[in-house]
Amino acid sequence: MLLSELLQCESDIEVTGLAFDSSRVKQGDLFFCLVGTENDGHTFAADAVSRGAVALVVERKLALDVPQIEVSDTRKALAHAASEFYGNPSKRLKMIGITGTNGKTTTTYIVKSIIEAAGHSCGLIGTNAVEYLGNKADARLTTPDPIELHAILKEMSDAGVEYVVMEVSAHALKLSKTDGIVYEVAAFTNFSRDHLDFFGSMDNYAATKKSFFSIEHARSAVVNVDDELGKAILKESKLPAVTYGVDNPSDVFGIDLEMSAYGLSYVINMADSVGHVKFSLTGRFNMYNTLCAAAIAASLGFGLQSVIAGIRNVKKIDGRFNIINMSKCNVIIDFAHTDDGIANILRAIREFAPNRIITVFGCGGNRDKTKRAVMGKIVSQMSDYCFVTSDNPRFEPPLDIINEIASGIDEIGGTNYTKIVDRKQAIKEAISMADKQDIVLIAGKGAERYNDVMGNRTPYNDEQYVMELAGEFGF
Known about the structure:
This protein is α/β, with parallel strands linked by helices. The chain is built from 16 helices and 23 strands.
């Protein structure tokens, strides 16, 4: 299409593709010089031109003999241009966006199931995968970059998908990835410490979450009013809202929670329609995830029966409280990778654990360092024993990360831990230590299928390795 059709400019240059990574530029591409992270895209503009870029979108003019469109924010320009390039597919779809520190993935799967139980098609975009109408592909990022995102939305729209539910990360909001999409519903799960390596402070992180709940991004809101940031969003946002909670008055709420190793049940009140919810994943936090999904359904006009059926139909979500019953012990695999997330999962396990909880966990490299010692304290206090190990160290020495985690345990005088750099060995040791009535929690990676070490991603999955151990030792 013409450059003038993508951006507000006068140019009859034909553009055949979009790019922001110079190494992936093809002949005829429009190259966006993105700023706002560690790399400044302007430094790669010459490389992009040499590879065939026919024009540049810049925030400052460059000494290159190629058409340049100067804008105030190249990231916002990319998001809007990507939407235009793919025919504005989000306008043909009913979009649902879910943000929050924890619970996004689980809630998206529940929402998808509810919409399908009501007889409609629903696509899903999130941490685990991109899914629609029986198609499934691995996800690279929680929220894809704009070019990939709108390409996916076009595929879904062309295939006849009606609704799309997606995770909207704080990074995506800060980097304007979803600009130009107006969601039918913007939903908020909860807020706790994470990503301070990127945002610098909890205030900045909170402000970014709040920014999603504006008329620029959404037509309505769904808010957890048991969360302090949720209360602030409700107070400050001008969007019509459906609230949910347990401890505070809300439009959608639950009472009489019962939990076991095999799931949870409670009584739901959804705008004065009352029913009994059963969900295959346990934990009070999963009660909140189902309530959030129910509130989204209410905002979209779906009834209680579709909500109850949709929640019941979700049997498993990869990497979220996956229980493996072994003759040696029971193993639970979960993505919990924040201090709040791992506390929630350990609290839930303690509700039904017949004996010891043995936890295997680590922290990712080149990410928020402030949570490492905090997580060490929490896991030591809430587990009977723990193995501190590696979890995507990226470009940091694994033992340095492990020592930072262990410093939190040492600070409280904890001695119930062992440091093992090799994650497989740590899991093997934990299961070997366990007795029949013990539970081994393997936290942090969930459904991930790789280890990220020094920029190299090698195949690895916690559940797959546990099954290998079970076969090798007859567990």
